[in-house]
């Protein structure tokens, strides 16, 4: 899905201005982890922004738990860090090897 296609979907489903949709689409495609992008793109097919957030949280927790030696409890803690401070969460996940947060 291209940036323009995703922008059009965001503008249509979320009923927001094109500039706002473009900014969010850029962030989804370029800044979020690959699993988040997949969840966001899938959720745009008729679901709400809240649904996208829930899907993304599930993917992020799965990423965190996939780390070597990481159990579900540690995964939940990583997710909490990510939600409180996205940059710190991305850095921590990158250092642990889950993903690099980029395309």
Task: Please specify the SSE layout and strand pairing.
Layout lengths: L2 H12 L3 H13 L3 H10 L5 H17 L6 H13 L1 H11 L7
Helix pairs in contact: 1-2, 3-4, 4-5, 5-6
What attributes characterize this protein structure?
103 residues; mainly alpha; 2 domains; 0% strand; disordered C terminus
Mean pLDDT figure: 59
Report the major sheet. none
Order of helices and strands: HHHHHH
**What is the domain tally?**
2
Q: Count of helical segments?
A: 6
Distance N to C terminus = 13 Å
Radius of gyration: 14 Å
Residue stretches low in confidence (pLDDT < 50, at least 5 long) are 98-103
Q: Gist?
A:
The protein is mostly helical.
Question: Can you characterise this structure?
Answer:
It is a single chain. The chain contains 6 helices and no strands. It is mainly alpha-helical and 103 residues long. The C terminus is likely disordered. It has 2 domains: 31 residues, no CATH class; 64 residues, no CATH class. Helix 1 packs across helix 2 and helix 4 packs across helix 5. Helix content is 74%, strand content 0%.
């Amino acid at each position: 899905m291209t940036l323009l296609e995703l922008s059009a979907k965001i503008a249509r489903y979320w009923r927001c201005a094109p500039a706002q949709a473009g900014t969010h689409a850029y962030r989804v495609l370029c800044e979020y982890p690959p699993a988040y992008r997949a969840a966001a793109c899938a959720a745009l097919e008729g679901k709400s922004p809240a649904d996208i957030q829930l899907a993304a949280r599930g993917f992020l927790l799965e990423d965190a738990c996939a780390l070597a030696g990481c159990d579900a409890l540690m995964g939940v803690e990583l997710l909490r860090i990510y939600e409180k401070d996205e940059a710190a969460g991305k850095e921590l996940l990158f250092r642990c090897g889950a993903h690099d947060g980029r395309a």
